Amino acid sequence: MDFKQVIEDLLAAGMTQAGIAKKVGLTPPSIVDLTSGRQKSVKWEVGDALIRLHCEKCKEAHA
């Protein structure tokens, strides 16, 4: 899963890095690390939360 793209999509949908972090249980610096490529993977629970949030906020991408 390309979490960098998931986060970029969420940002384009109007969310903030802090908002994304709060919804998925990460810190804002962790979101920055994922978008910059410094961090490439996350725990299963966080990845699942990111995917669910993406489905919720980026519905047209899943239609």
> In DSSP terms, counting alpha (H) and pi (I) runs of 4 or more, how many helices?
5
CATH fold naming:
434 Repressor (Amino-terminal Domain)
Total E-strand runs = 0
Distance between the termini: 19 Å
Overall radius of gyration:
10 Å
Give the helix/strand class. Answer: mainly alpha
What fraction strand? Answer: under 5%
Helix content: over 70%
Tell me which CATH architecture applies here: Orthogonal Bundle
Q: Which residue ranges are poorly predicted, with pLDDT under 50 across at least 5 consecutive positions?
A: none
User: Mind telling me the CATH class?
Assistant: Mainly Alpha
The averaged pLDDT comes out at 92
Helix-strand sequence: HHHHH
Total separate domains: 1
Globally, the shape reads globular
Largest sheet descriptor: none
Can you describe what's shown?
By secondary structure, the protein is mainly alpha-helical. It has a single domain, classed as 434 Repressor (Amino-terminal Domain) (Orthogonal Bundle). 71% of the residues lie in helices and 0% in strands. It has five helices and no strands. The longest helix has 14 residues. The protein starts with a helix and ends with a helix. The model has no long low-confidence stretch (mean pLDDT 92).
